[in-house]
Amino acid sequence: MLQHIIHPLRTALLVSSLAVACAPAGLEGRQSPPADTLDVFFLGNSYVYYNNLADQLGELSRALPGPVLRTAHHLHGGFSLVRHLEDGHLPDVLDATAADGEAWDVVIVQDHSRLGVPYADESAGTIGDRAPFFEGAAGVAEMVSDIGAEMVFYMTWAKEDFPGQTEALAAAYEEAGHRHGADVAPVGLAWDRVRSERPDIILFHPDGSHPSPAGTYLNASIFYAQLTGASPMGAPAELHGIEMRTPGVVVSDEVIPLVRLEEDVAAYLQRVAWEIVSASRE
């Protein structure tokens, strides 16, 4: 669905009164800009700002020969899509445009890690009623459609203690994608595979929910493949950006290493990302 929206390079300008950040200028100048770019906007929570997924994705794209992904975001820790809608700022946030007055090309939409609802069974981590998730997805989809952007759902992963959540989360995001004609980035499926094949790679933060730097690197690789249709193979094992902390605020403008992986680990995560995205399109 995204093949036809890559356009000549332009400068993205973000205007928002809340927690929104653009790719740092220090990263922009590391290489000559390529001919194409996508303006990508993340709407979500801590699953984006831990290890700054948006900045990792932007720098990963600048290191590869495909389109540059110019990223920005609107994030609140713990928010579901329904809470984002209730917050009342989304119309202004999504109406913020690039310097040439054009809308975002892609809006990546992510709900709360358990779809914003209490567990049906707390001890088993059973996902509860999905109705609020679909309600929130519908409201956001309408706003994204109004600005002429493509919407991509960010399928999240099972918590470390409840690997069986993968199936329910995947089914919910795939259903939402079907309802709204949107692509689904199969992040949760990639996590499930890595956890099975390479338990030595630590994807989780110590809290058992949020991503480690390696987990965010896998996510960035998935989004690169999903948005460009190109393989992330060959991306650097170290990515840089701006540090963010709860509840989604920028710590400083200093560009720091966000992730440093062994070359073989980075190559493995890139390969898994490419294979999972390719399989999801078959």
Task: Outline the secondary-structure elements.
Layout: E1 7-8, H1 25-28, E2 36-44, H2 46-49, H3 53-62, E3 68-75, H4 81-87, H5 90-95, E4 106-109, H6 131-146, E5 150-154, H7 165-180, E6 183-185, H8 187-197, H9 213-228, E7 238-245, E8 249-260, H10 263-280
Parallel strand pairs: 2-3, 2-4, 4-5, 5-6
Antiparallel strand pairs: 1-2, 7-8
Descriptive notes:
The protein is of the alpha/beta class. It has one domain: 3-Layer(aba) Sandwich (Rossmann fold), CATH 3.40.50. Helices cover 38% and strands 18% of the residues. The chain has ten helices and eight strands. It has helices at residues 25-28, 46-49, 53-62, 81-87, 90-95, 131-146, 165-180, 187-197, 213-228, 263-280, and strands spanning 7-8, 36-44, 68-75, 106-109, 150-154, 183-185, 238-245, 249-260. Strands 1, 2, 3, 4, 5 and 6 form a six-stranded mixed beta sheet that branches. Strands 7-8 form a two-stranded antiparallel ribbon. Strand 5 (150-154), helix 7 (165-180) and strand 6 form a beta-alpha-beta unit. It is globular, with a radius of gyration of 17 Å. The two termini are 14 Å apart. Residues 4-35 have low confidence and may be disordered.
